[in-house]
């Protein structure tokens, strides 16, 4: 079981991403809306590990109280070509987004068990996951169903730790 530190979107951006999920599903490509626990929410993951302790959650909440939550532009339809092919909307990287990511990881340093290297500063590619574990034909069908994608301006309005197995979210901050 993994836990993810996730930043969730405002209502308008949430609706826009969910409409992309619906387009995928109509094209026969399983989106996050119809996958696993079916409790997925449109978001950007800032960190992933096997456990975020109560103390770490409290420290994160305190730090996040000092930070302005940035907005992101979800702009580029792309993929992470691994054995778990994922279809994503990548976020435009700017200094504000990187500053918040860095501040979060300053709090998390040496406090999260089994952190995923993909989410560490310098390796992180901020994105909103649309579908995952797609074979090559489904990945191609997903691109065809969504391309071209209109950019989505997403205000980050809620931060939580998500249990990736159940979809349950422990909300740390809401704005």
Keywords:
single chain; 175 residues; alpha+beta; seven-stranded antiparallel beta sheet; two-stranded antiparallel sheet; 4 helices; globular
What does this structure look like?
- The chain is of the alpha+beta class.
- Helices cover 31% and strands 33% of the residues.
- Strands 1, 2, 4, 5, 7, 8 and 9 form a seven-stranded antiparallel sheet that branches. Strands 3-6 form a two-stranded antiparallel sheet.
- α2 runs antiparallel to α3 (95-108).
- The longest helix is centred in the first third of the chain and has 16 residues, at 11-26.
- The protein is globular.
- This is 2'-5' RNA ligase superfamily protein.
- It comes from Kutzneria viridogrisea.
Fold blueprint:
Elements: E1 3-9, H1 11-26, E2 43-49, E3 51-52, H2 54-66, E4 71-80, E5 86-91, H3 95-108, E6 112-113, E7 127-131, H4 136-146, E8 152-163, E9 169-174
Antiparallel strand pairs: 1-2, 1-8, 3-6, 4-5, 4-8, 5-7, 8-9
Helix pairs in contact: 2-3
Task: Please report which band the strand proportion falls in: under 5%, 5-15%, 15-25%, 25-35%, 35-45% or over 45%.
Answer: 25-35%
Which structural class fits the helix and strand makeup?
Answer: alpha+beta
Oligomer: single chain
Biggest β-sheet description: 7 strands, antiparallel
Could you tell me the radius of gyration in angstroms? 16 Å
H/E series: EHEEHEEHEEHEE
Mean pLDDT: 95
Overall shape: it is: globular
Question: Low-confidence runs (pLDDT<50, min 5 residues)?
Answer: none
The helix content, as a percent range, equals: 25-40%
Distance between the termini: 28 Å
